[in-house]
Every structure is written in C-alpha cells, then in structure tokens.
Amino acid sequence: MFLKMRNITFILLTVLTLGACSEYQKVLKEDDVKAKYAMADSLYNQGIREGKNSKLKKSLRLLDQIVPQYRGKPQGERLAYIYSNTYYELGGFFDAGYQFERFTKAYPRSEKVEEAYYKSAKSYYEVSPRFSLDQTETYKAIDKFQEYISKYPDGEFIGDANEYMANLRDKLDEKSYEIAKQYHHTEDYKAAIAALNNFIEDNPGSKYLEKAYFYKFDSAYTLAIRSYQQLVPERLKVAKEYFEDYIRYYPEGEFAQQAKEYSADIEQRQQINNTNS
Asked: Quick one: pLDDT at residue 6?
C-alpha cells in the first residue's frame, strides 16, 4: 500500500511538472506580453524564495523578451529591477553591473536605487581580475563604490562598500608594486630604484611599503657593489641612506636582519675605500 501511494505521488508530481513546463513553453513562444510578465514575475519570486537558479533562468528568458516593451510604463521599474537582480543572483555580473547602472539612471527616485548603486559596484568588483591582468574593471568598481559611498555615507551597505573598496585598492597597489619590483628581478637596478621610489611616494598607506623600501635599498646596494670602482663610493653612500630610511620605519621589519647585514658590508667597504684613498 505504501509503495502504491509513493507511485501515485510520483506520477502526480511528474504530471504537474510536465504541465508547468508545457505552460512555460507556451507562454515563452506566444506574443502575450502580459502573460510573459506575470510568469516572469512569478518565476523570479519563486527562484529568490526557494534559491532555485532554474526558476531564475526561466524568468530571465521571458524578461529578455519583454523588458524593452515596458520601458516608460508603470511596470517598467519593477521589471528593470528584477531583470538586473536576476543577472546578479545568477552570477552574470557583467550584465548585472550594466543593468543596475541603467536602473539608477532611469529610476533615480526608486526605493531600490540605493541597492542598485551598491549591486552595480559589487558586480564590477566580482569581475575584477587578479592583479597581474588588465585592471579596467577594478577601476570601474572603485568608481562605482565611490559613487555609492558619496551618495549614501550612512547607507545600508556602507560597511561592505568600504571593505570592498579597500580590497580593490590593495589589488592596484600590488600591481604597481610588482611592476616596480620586476625591474629588481631583471637586475635593472637603476630602473628599480626609480620605480620603487615612485611607488613609495604614490602609495603612502600601502601594505607593500616595507617591501618597496627594502628592495629600493637592496637595488642601490647591489648596484653599488657591481659598479666600476670610481662609482662605488658615491653609490655606497646612497645605498647607506636608503638603509637608514628602511630601518627608521621598520626597525623590526621582515627584512631588518638582512638589511643590517648589507649595511655592515657597506660600512666595511667604505672603510677599505677610505684607507686606500
């Protein structure tokens, strides 16, 4: 008896599912815009409530067909929002960022506009690539978060916005630092000193600042000891100054011991030079 009831339940569920699919396909193919609107809205609500991407994907197919037709109409604002948010929930962040951006411009007085500003920025944040790649989307995300923060300094999402902004800026810092550090890696020490110095001046709050100070010193030190003899004294002097900069700011830093060893070698070389001169 139990197995029979289970079979009946399974059959009923199958029939209902097939019926729902059949109805969806019918609405998808016909020209009834109102029917498409009603079903898209219903599927969206179900998808959000139940956490089902399959519902959201079906809703999106219908929304693709009808959103342009509702622009300027009373239902347009609602459709524009769920269209943007469906992309967002499905992880289509390129489209979500663009659609939320359009929403903020088309409906600046909407009760959803703050959320739209935030989610537009968050979408660009999600597509921001690792630091070694082109950072166009990173700059875009920073601009969008800055726009949100300026408009809503006490907004609902302000804490997250500031955190994401800091992450994006850190990524740009890392890229700038790695570009400068690359000169050191390729043993172009003059270029390394210049690039690392520029990084220090341009990024006073960066978490890569200690490394920049150290490798600036390291570059100067290596350049000095590899130079022609007549250039060594002046370059050792410069390297010693860079050591003093580093150790002043980072007396217990990650590279402090190594820096002190280089400094001791500089002093020994300077003593020999002074003796010989």
From this structure: 53
